[in-house]
Amino acid sequence: MTGLSGELFIGADRISGSGQAIHGWNPATGERLDPAYPGASLADVERACGLADEAFDPFRALPLGARADFLERIAANILGIGDALIERAMAETGLPRGRLEGERGRTVTQLRLFAEVVRAGRFLEARVDPAQPDRQPAPRPDLRLRMIGLGPVAVFGASNFPLAFSVAGGDTASALAAGCPVVVKAHSAHPGTSELVGKAVQQAVAECGLPAGVFSLLFGNGTDIGRALVADPRIKAVGFTGSRSGGLALLEVAQGRPEPIPVYAEMSSINPVLLLPGALAERAPEIARAFVASVTLGAGQFCTNPGLLVAVEGEGLDAFVEGAALAMASAEPQVMLTAGIARAYGEGVDRLGAAGEVTLAGRGRAASGNQGQAALFSVSAKAFLANPALQEEVFGAAALLVRCGEAAELHSVLRALQGQLTAALHVADGDAGLVQGLLPLLERKVGRIIFNNFGTGVEVAHAMVHGGPFPATSDSRTTSVGTLAIDRFLRPVSYQDMPEALLPDELKSANPLAIPRLVDGA
Amino acid sequence: MTGLSGELFIGADRISGSGQAIHGWNPATGERLDPAYPGASLADVERACGLADEAFDPFRALPLGARADFLERIAANILGIGDALIERAMAETGLPRGRLEGERGRTVTQLRLFAEVVRAGRFLEARVDPAQPDRQPAPRPDLRLRMIGLGPVAVFGASNFPLAFSVAGGDTASALAAGCPVVVKAHSAHPGTSELVGKAVQQAVAECGLPAGVFSLLFGNGTDIGRALVADPRIKAVGFTGSRSGGLALLEVAQGRPEPIPVYAEMSSINPVLLLPGALAERAPEIARAFVASVTLGAGQFCTNPGLLVAVEGEGLDAFVEGAALAMASAEPQVMLTAGIARAYGEGVDRLGAAGEVTLAGRGRAASGNQGQAALFSVSAKAFLANPALQEEVFGAAALLVRCGEAAELHSVLRALQGQLTAALHVADGDAGLVQGLLPLLERKVGRIIFNNFGTGVEVAHAMVHGGPFPATSDSRTTSVGTLAIDRFLRPVSYQDMPEALLPDELKSANPLAIPRLVDGA
């Protein structure tokens, strides 16, 4: 692949790492891809963090328009890579062209949306409480508040979104939008894709005349570089999308620092889907087809993949199972992201199939190599409740149907669930009473509640929550997709009786930026 | 004291604890106060948390107006206690009547302000992204977002604000406003005051017809009850104001849970005060008098007490020191909150005075019993930078002046500081350039920057931040005073394609609550 050097990005520099090298691998062919990516050293981590720290004050002091321009420039540069980006990503991930072109669009849209958010200035939460010099018994001072960035942010790319949740994905976009420099640890499954995007960001930094430390990109085998990055005292927050074990390991490092820092780890979720009796009576075959389409989408490699179905026994459910088995039987096997993920998926399916009282209800077409073969299993609510291991995510196109003897068991199953990213409900008019009873419980368990659809397809929007109670994420107060994600990297600062000339523009009395502000609470 | 029973409040019940008893003590007289407060058992903690969990869904489902009414009813009931509350608090804390009457006013104002916040509904951050069925390449679903409470909250009362940061103080008010039931662990220094306020809250729960578990109040000696409370799986967040060791201990418990939860611990701060050369040249004696008034206010027992002064050598600084020593010499000793706090203060002053290169620059009138004697010490910037122990908070009316050889040393001293609640700057026109250079650093170190005043006196306002980087607090993204404090106990939930009839009122299309909402980001 021309133009790939295998080097690290440390601010404005490109240097070759000195650690153990990683390579991209084509999961469809098993072929090793050039170049080699020698890993960063601890000194490289140090340097990237030092530069990020130096860049923080000048970067956050930029006018909002300049910060927004930078995000848009990144988007333009990513598009400017052209088809080489799609081809390299296809080779490294096994994902089809259409999916990756869509993901590139999503990545670019995300950067542009955050540029809009920055320009609009609402994220600053500017507040002005004017002085009340005559207030009794004591005068009130002038108080003004704005949000500022937390400081340099460490971002860990995800394997399953090589563009939209990787080097210039949602975490990076929202951190930069918040005024925080970013040090990315690239995911080892797509180093070439990471390098191409890293170059686009590094160029944008230079083109916009920003301090070089606004962005660095490190490669590294194993976990040492990631841990060192999170442990560095200059890093003030962490964005991560990946496995539960990976997220919890970083959380532990962050909590063990002399100064603990927030970790936003989006980890694992089985995304319960409730098939209510009215909906099943009305349209079981249609729901079954839609379910199979959702569970097999992208080889099931989505955080929001529907891994758990919950329904009440009856004719409607029988019809659903029949329809799902039928649809799944013609589901083609799909190449998974890496050999390791394909292996883990196969083991997870075997484990589910071998669990007590679990039966196979449907299977996709046979797979070979690094492909995944879709699978649907079935278990009684009673057996599910007795075996917490059945809640473990099997990352891929597999789902478990929990059959409840009566509607009351829906509550018991939901109550037993850990925190999740999403829950979906398939409902008809007759189900309203049942749904109303379930909603308070669902709200406590998940970040997003979906009606008559599935969680796959996460809109980049203002009202999106891609988050949820632990262990779906490490911090339920936030989202990693959508404009609210910027709040993760901000903290409030209050200014008391600050001379007008010293006030930042967003807090000056005349409101020169014309941003929305809360004045005396209104 | 008539009307005090020494019992716990477990939901609607009053029961006598079975653990080791605590008593109030009058720090002015050393007298033990009746009644005894036998501690809660682990079963009492269990029951309080169970009731809180049961109360959560019905409580948060209340119309906003009813939730606001409840907060106002608590305020009215606290006023309804009358002078018995002030007298008991005076006896238990040694604080003077005027201060406690003021603090009661603050407590009531705070509850009423959060009632306003609840009615205004802005805290719900309601967002609506309408469906775009014709969007290409795929339709956009209807997405709506609102904030909901995290769940039951554990609140730990503070010793130094027996009303405003105790049973019905800022943490409780903001958690209830967020729709979260509260289980309070009373501070052992003012159990009688806690009981009186607890009764006012319990009555408000009954009068408003709320589920009993919305509020419980536990007494307990030592740390077992507090730890058990934070460890209980039904508790979803913690509010704490107190020592660093206490806050860090609770943080450790919270992080070690199977489901980690946020801890908002406001711990310790020495609140640097920068005396800039222009200001000292202009009005050193005036600043010196104001400083002594601030550092001795309430025997120095404020989180925002000015414990560190930083200034550049010169005639102005000499004049300041002379003025401060003079003002301090006539500062009367004041009774401290507890014998333990008075002892720790005395030890802290001795430790400071004995530290290498630290000299005494001023001293208040001699103290006896549980009184604290004001103290001002002085040290060179070089010696300060060489000894991190000089940053340790001495809780009480003591401060350390750091003398810088030149202006550049101001930066070095600030850079060496840990996170703080506040920084204050005393400036004159000629200091503007210096201040501009210091501001970015200050913003990274503190939650509130004050001009020409001191941090004592924390307004309950919209633009207040009473928070700051670790270790001033355990979570710099928040504030424990002011309306923004409600955000600590909220998390977002997104609803996708939810049938109109099922939507909560705040998200219905017609906006029946007439609250501010973000529609398509605008």
In words, what does this structure look like?
Chains A, B: This is Aldehyde dehydrogenase (NADP(+)). The structure is a homodimer of 522-residue chains. Chain A is of the alpha/beta class and 522 residues long. The first copy, chain A, folds into 2 domains: 8-23 and 35-267 and 475-493, 3-Layer(aba) Sandwich (Aldehyde Dehydrogenase, Chain A, domain 1), CATH 3.40.605; 272-451, Aldehyde Dehydrogenase, Chain A, domain 2. Chain A has 14 helices and 22 strands. In chain A, strands 15-17-18-13-12-19-20 form a 7-stranded mixed beta sheet, sandwiched between helices. The longest helix of chain A has 24 residues, at 97-120. At the A-B interface, helix 1, helix 4, strand 5, strand 6 and helix 14 of A face helix 1, helix 4, strand 5, strand 6 and helix 14 of B. Strand 20 (446-451) of chain A pairs parallel with strand 21 (490-496) of chain B, so a sheet runs across the interface.
